[in-house]
Every structure is written in C-alpha cells, then in structure tokens.
Predict the 3D structure of the following.
Amino acid sequence: MAKKKEVTVEDKLRALYDLQLIDSRIDEIKSVRGELPLEIEDLGDEITGLNTRVSNLEEDISNLETDIKNKKNTITEAGDLVVKYTKQQDKVRNNREFDSLSKEIEFQGLEIELSEKRINEYRVNIEQKKEVIAQNNEVLERKNDHFKHKKDELDAILTETQKEEELLHKKSEEFSEVIEAHLLKAYKRIRENANNGLAVVPVERGASGGSFFTIPPQRQVEIANRKKIITDEHSGRILVDSTLAEEEKEKIGKLFS
C-alpha cells in the first residue's frame, strides 16, 4: 500500500497563497464590472414601474371611454323619453297629468345636462392622462436606451472575462479542497474583514504586504523557514516569504496564461 504524501506547512502556505492569488483575480474581474449589475437591476425595476404606470393609465382611459359611451347612451335614452313625454302631454286629460309629465321631462333634461357635464369631465381627464402617458413614454425611451447601453457594456465585459472567471472559480474550489477546514475558515474570515480582500500576504521590505509595521528580523527568519503558520500581529493576515510568493505567482501565471 502506497504511503500517503505528508502535507507540510510549506505545502499549506503555498496552497493558501495560490488561493489568495486566484481569489484576488476574481475580485479584480468583479471590480471591472463594478456597480453595473446593480445599475442594470435598478434600471430594470424603474422601467417595469414606468410600464406598469402607463398600463394603469391606459386602463383608466379605456374605463373613461366606456363611461363616455354609457353617458351617451343615457343622453339618447333621456332624449327619447323627452320626446315620448312631450307627445303624451298632448293627450292628457287634466293639469295633474300634464304637470307630472312636465316633471319627467325636466328630470330627463337634467339627466342630459349632467351626462354632458360628466362627458366633458371624462374627456378632460382622458387628455390629462394622455399627457402623463406621453411624458412617461419619453422617460421610458431614455431609460430603455440607458438600460441597453449598460447591458451592452456589461455583456462586453462578461464576454471578455467569463471563461477566465469560470476557470478561476473552478481552481478556487480545487485549492480550497486541499486546505484544512480550520485554515480555510480562518482564510475566509480574514478576507471578509479586509477591505482589499487580502488574507495571505508576502513580507516586503521587512513589513507585511500593504502594511507599514516592521516585522522583527527573527520573525522574518521564521516566516522564511516555512515551518509554521505565522500571522501579522497588526492585521491578522497570514504571512509568507517573498520568495515563496514570487514562485507561486509565476506558477499561477502559467496556469492561466
């Protein structure tokens, strides 16, 4: 039975730094995309909202046009009744019947006046809604153009980086699998708390990458020996020596070239 290869501290450090390089490149790609996905989502929501508003206004207009049609029918019916009651007045037998018919004629006349007034109100309302629809359609046209421009911009970026990003994510998962659970958890925690997403950094000019705090010479020797996992006491980041960092950068560079 073949003896399982022992994973040394150096192997762990290399795997951690490789993972950092890969995740940093993924961060760079996401940074290129920037706020575009959110901008596009917000624009899409605005366009949906405007379309809904236009649709509701068009429905209101349709209902008002139906109301106008109904009022016109009321006018026609009232007019017919006026004609009918006027003819009946010629045949009444007494003043009481005549007065009763006169009241009916007056009532139908009021119905006609009220219906005509409502029709005019509905027409004014329709024109106002049409103006709002026209304004909304102008805004919609601008928003749709802006949406298309942003979408094309994002699609161009995705086309350029999609294959690389897919490969990076795949490699990130592969490297994550060979790192011990507690180390991986620590790596992710440090990354989340760091503004630049750096959890593993090399020692550069006597200080941890991106830091101005000097690391004591004895500590630098321990880091270069690669016998244990050492963290920066100021930032909490995992430290690797510059030689290891350069070797892994070259390795990862060839992997994705």
